[in-house]
Structure formats: C-alpha cells, structure tokens
Design goal:
Layout (H helix, E strand, L loop, with lengths): L4 H20 L3 E2 L5 H17 L3 E6 L9 E6 L22 E7 L9 H9 L8 E7 L2 E7 L3 H7 L2 E2 L2 E2 L1 E5 L11 E8 L4 H8 L4 H9 L3 E3 L2 E2 L12 E4 L3 E11 L5 E8 L1
Antiparallel strand pairs: 1-3, 2-3, 4-6, 4-9, 5-6, 7-8, 10-15, 11-12, 11-13, 13-14, 14-15
Helix pairs in contact: 1-2, 5-6
Length: 268
C-alpha cells in the first residue's frame, strides 16, 4: 500500500496515541478516519501490538456500522466487555470523545442531502477529521462529531445553503440511525475472487471491478483490498467507495455449469 506524506503523518500521530496510552495508562484516540486511513492504522496497530500486549486497539464511530471511525487505544485494565460498539465504558460514559448534533431543517423546502450538510460544515473551516458520519432524515440529520467542536457548532452553525437550521446536542445513546434498505442479489460466479464478487454486488463488469480494486477504492472487512484475485469468505463485507456496501451472505454449491451460487445483500 503506497503511503503519501499525509499517510506518514497520520501513522505517526496514531503511533503517538499508542505510546501515550502506554505512558499515561489511559484511553487515547485519534480523530475520525476514513476507510483507507482505518486500513493503514489497523495494520500499524497489529505491528505495535507485537511489541506491547498491554495496549489494545478498537475502531468506533458512534454506532456499530459507522463508516468513519476513531482508532481507540485502551490499556489492559479495560475489559473487552466494557468497551462496546459505541466506544463507551460501561462505568464511565463521560470518557466517550464523541457528541451528536441533531439538525432540524425547515419543512416544505428542498430536502437537504449529505453533501449539503458536509459542505456547510467544512465551509465553517472545520477539518474533515473532526466530523464523522452524517445520518440524514426526512427533516434534518444527526451529525457525529468530536466532542471538542460541539460548542463551536452550537454557536456558529445555522445555515446549509439557504436553509436555516435549528441545532441541539443530544446524547450518543439517542443517535437516530435511519432504517436500512437492502436487496438480495442471487448470482453465480466462476470463483470467489474479489473482482467477481465486486462485479456481482455492484452490477459492473469484472474488468471495471478489477480496476476499482487496483485503484484502492475497494475494501473488504474494513481493510483496503489490493489484489483482484483475493479469495473472499462467506460473511465478508465489501465496500466500493462511491457505490456503497454489500455482504456476501451465502455461498452455495456448484451449478451444472460448474459455477458457484452466491447470495449477496446489497445496501441501497
């Protein structure tokens, strides 16, 4: 995986958080990571863990299936059962570094999109790493943010385009997760190669799927994929940046033409 100057800075910062966790014996965390950054940091965590097993790493972004996540480093006194998918310690929820800003947009106007909210937030001068997933609803959105910018947003964020916004801070446990719409795709493939599965899941040619993999925009189980011929196991999560995500739910037997029957759940 090629690393740019920004990648190297990211990994240096993540390693610093790891070392800080060791020195101070407390939970530390990065800012929000996209899928590619998470893949890089995950590989780093595995390397660092070989030299120090007193620190563990987990990723979370406010809810179980978050796309943008923090890397959290926690010492061995934190038991795994205390650290849930929301990143909360059962006995110390104040340790959670995330907040939720709930936005209500005016009724009757154009429905605001993810792009509208993100553009207006970054237009305030906020770095993308401070903003997590934006979960849109019929009349607004829940925006997951780093807690340190909550006060700034409540004072300064009032418009998205021409729409006036009403904001309130809500508890992370009150996060409104939109109902997920999915479709089951039944298909057959010559083999369980990644390019075959991506082509089937996202309705594209195998050549375009292979190109997407080589350009680094395909992720399998949150790790950046690099080889089109990589074998995929049942239950794997596939993400094609810009197209969405899908799960390989079932691998069946072979057909008369010696192809493998598969069932994919595509998120719409």
């Amino acid at each position: 995986m090629n690393q740019s100057k920004d990648d190297k800075i990211l990994l240096a910062n993540a390693e610093d958080k790891f070392q800080q966790c060791i020195r101070q014996y407390r939970i530390t965390y990065t800012n929000f990571l996209d899928l590619r950054q998470r893949s890089l940091v995950s590989s780093l965590c595995k390397e660092l863990a070989r030299g120090n097993r007193e620190v563990r790493c987990a990723f979370f972004g406010g809810y179980e299936d978050a796309e943008r996540t923090l890397a959290v480093f926690f010492p061995d006194y934190v038991e795994p059962w205390q650290f849930n998918e929301k990143g909360l310690l059962s006995d110390a929820p104040e340790d959670c570094p995330l907040s939720i800003i709930r936005i209500k947009a005016p009724a009757g106007g154009r429905k605001l999109t993810h792009r509208d909210y993100l553009g207006s937030l970054t237009g305030l001068g906020l770095k993308r790493e401070m903003i997590g997933d934006i979960l849109t609803t019929e009349n607004g959105a829940d925006v997951i943010i780093m807690d340190e910018i909550k006060g700034f947003l409540l004072l300064n964020y009032s418009k998205a385009g021409r729409a006036n916004l009403l904001l309130e801070a809500v508890n992370l446990m009150e996060l409104s997760i939109p109902e997920t719409k999915t479709a089951l795709v039944k298909d057959t493939v010559a083999s369980l190669r990644l390019d075959n599965l991506v082509a089937s899941a996202f309705s594209m040619s195998r050549a375009k799927a292979a190109e997407a993999i080589r350009t680094g925009i395909v992720f399998i189980d949150s790790a950046q994929a690099e080889k089109p011929d990589m074998q995929v196991a049942e239950g794997a999560k596939l993400v094609l940046r810009g197209k969405g995500k899908a799960y390989l739910r079932q691998v069946g037997g072979r057909t008369r033409k010696d192809r493998i029957a598969i069932t994919i759940e595509r998120y719409l």
